[in-house]
Automatic annotation (TrEMBL):
The keyword Isomerase does not apply. Pfam families: RsgA_GTPase. Keywords: Cytoplasm, GTP-binding, Hydrolase, Metal-binding, Nucleotide-binding, Ribosome biogenesis, RNA-binding, rRNA-binding, Zinc. The lineage of its organism: Bacteria, Bacillati, Actinomycetota, Actinomycetes, Pseudonocardiales. Residues 91-261 form the CP-type G domain. The gene is rsgA. Its cofactor is Zn(2+). Residues 99-259 form the EngC GTPase domain. This is Small ribosomal subunit biogenesis GTPase RsgA. Zn(2+) binds at residues 284, 289, 291, 297. It comes from Actinomycetospora lemnae. Belongs to the TRAFAC class YlqF/YawG GTPase family. RsgA subfamily. Monomer. Associates with 30S ribosomal subunit, binds 16S rRNA. It is an enzyme of class 3 (hydrolase).
Length: 358
C-alpha cells in the first residue's frame, strides 16, 4: 500500500481527501474513509482498495476518515461535521448517522401527507451538525394538483433553504439536485420517500435496492437497511463535464428510513431551522421573552396577525423543550454514573481494609 506521506490524491480525493486531512497522518499509517459499518467490522476505502478492518475499540461512523494498520483501525481522525440524532433508547445518547457531511438532502415524497414537523427536525439536525440542508420533493411525476401547495408548505417550513422538486422517473429536476449535492451528501427521510431511487438516478447505476410503498398507508418498506458511502460520478447529462471519467462530484450516503428523529444538543440548529421565529423574537419588548403571554411579544403579534402560523411557533417550542429534556436527562445520567463509580470505589476500598484487618 502507499505510505501516508505520499497518498494517491487522484484516488483519495474522490472520497473527499485534502491536504488538511493529510497533515494529520503520521508516516506508516494508511488513511481511508469509512464506507460502511457492520458489527465488528468496518469497510474502508483506501488509495489502493476497499479493505475490511477491525475497529478495535473505536466507534467510527460512515464518512469518518480513519488510519488503518495491519487490518485494524488505529485512529479516527477528528470530525469536521457530523449528522447526529438522539437515539430511541430513552437514554438521550447520540447516534452519528454520518460524519464529515457537507450537504444533507431532506427527502420528502409528494404522494404522502406532508409532515412539516419531521422536515423541521431534520433541518435542525443538519444545521446543528454543520452541513447545508436542501429539501428535495420527490415523485413529482405523480402530481395530482398538490405540487404547488406542497412547495408552498415546504417553503414555510424551511425558510432560507432551497426546495428542489424532482422526479427520478422522468429526470425532471435531477440536474438541480445533482448541483445541490456538494461534497459529502447524505440522503435522509422516511421510508418510501424515494431516497434509494434518487440515489440510483444520481449514481447512474442500480446501486441501491428499491421497493414500493404500501397502498394501505403509503408507508415504505426498509429496502435500505444500512448506511453506505459511494463515490458520485460527474455525469455529463447532469453536470455538463466534458470528461466525466476525469471528474468527481463528491460522495453520496444513502440511509435507512428514519422513524424517530430525536434532537440532542441542537439549540443552535433549532434556531437556524426557525429563523422566522427567532428574527421576530428580536422585536419583543423583553429580551427573555418566552413568546407566551408577555406584553409586547412580537412573535405572538405575528401569530395573531396571521403572518406566522401558530403551528410553526408550537413546533419551535416543542423542539426546544425536547432538546432541554435531553440535556437534563444526559446530565442526570452522567451524575448517576459518577455516583455509581464512586460507590464501587468505596466498596472496593472497604473490602481491602477488611482483608487487611483494619
Amino acid at each position: 500500500m502507499l505510505s501516508a506521506s505520499t497518498p494517491d490524491h487522484t484516488t483519495l480525493t474522490r472520497y473527499g481527501w485534502d491536504d488538511a486531512w493529510n497533515a494529520l497522518v503520521p508516516d506508516g499509517a494508511v488513511p481511508g474513509r469509512v464506507a460502511r459499518v457492520d458489527r465488528g467490522r468496518v469497510d474502508v476505502l483506501t488509495a489502493d482498495d476497499r479493505v475490511h478492518a477491525d475497529p478495535r475499540g473505536h466507534v467510527p461512523a460512515v464518512g469518518d476518515w480513519v488510519l488503518v494498520r495491519d487490518g485494524t483501525v488505529s485512529a479516527v481522525l477528528p470530525r469536521r461535521t457530523a449528522l447526529t440524532r438522539a437515539t430511541v433508547s430513552g437514554r438521550s445518547d447520540a447516534q452519528v448517522l454520518a460524519a464529515n457531511v457537507d450537504t444533507v438532502l431532506v427527502v420528502v415524497p409528494l404522494d404522502a401527507r406532508l409532515r412539516p414537523g419531521r422536515v423541521e427536525r431534520l433541518l435542525a439536525l443538519a444545521w446543528e451538525g454543520g452541513a447545508t440542508p436542501v429539501v428535495v420533493l420527490t415523485k413529482i411525476d405523480r402530481d395530482d394538483g398538490a405540487l404547488v401547495e406542497a412547495l408552498t408548505d415546504l417553503a414555510d417550513s424551511a425558510p432560507g433553504v432551497d426546495v428542489v422538486p424532482v422526479s427520478a422517473v422522468t429526470g425532471d429536476g435531477l440536474a438541480e439536485v445533482a448541483a445541490a449535492a456538494r461534497g459529502t451528501t447524505v440522503l435522509v427521510g422516511p421510508s418510501g420517500a424515494g431516497k434509494s431511487t434518487l440515489a440510483n438516478a444520481l449514481l447512474g447505476v442500480e446501486a441501491m435496492a428499491t421497493g414500493a410503498v404500501r397502498a394501505v398507508d403509503g408507508k415504505g418498506r426498509h429496502t435500505t437497511v444500512h448506511r453506505e458511502l459511494l463515490p458520485l460520478p460527474c455525469r455529463t447529462e447532469l453536470c455538463g463535464a466534458a470528461a466525466p471519467e476525469a471528474h468527481h462530484c463528491g460522495v453520496l450516503v444513502d440511509t435507512p428510513g428514519l422513524r424517530a428523529v430525536g434532537v440532542r444538543d441542537a439549540a443552535e440548529g433549532i434556531d437556524r431551522a426557525f429563523t422566522d421565529v427567532v428574527e421576530l423574537g428580536e422585536g419583543c419588548r423583553f429580551t427573555d421573552c418566552a413568546h407566551q403571554h408577555e406584553p409586547g411579544c412580537a412573535v405572538q403579534e405575528a401569530v395573531a396577525g396571521g403572518t406566522l402560523p401558530a403551528r410553526r411557533l408550537e413546533a419551535y417550542r416543542k423542539l426546544l423543550r425536547e432538546d432541554e429534556w435531553a440535556a437534563a436527562r444526559t446530565d442526570a445520567r452522567l451524575a448517576a454514573e459518577r455516583r455509581g463509580r464512586w460507590k464501587q470505589v468505596t466498596k472496593e476500598q472497604r473490602a481491602a481494609y477488611r482483608a487487611r484487618g483494619y
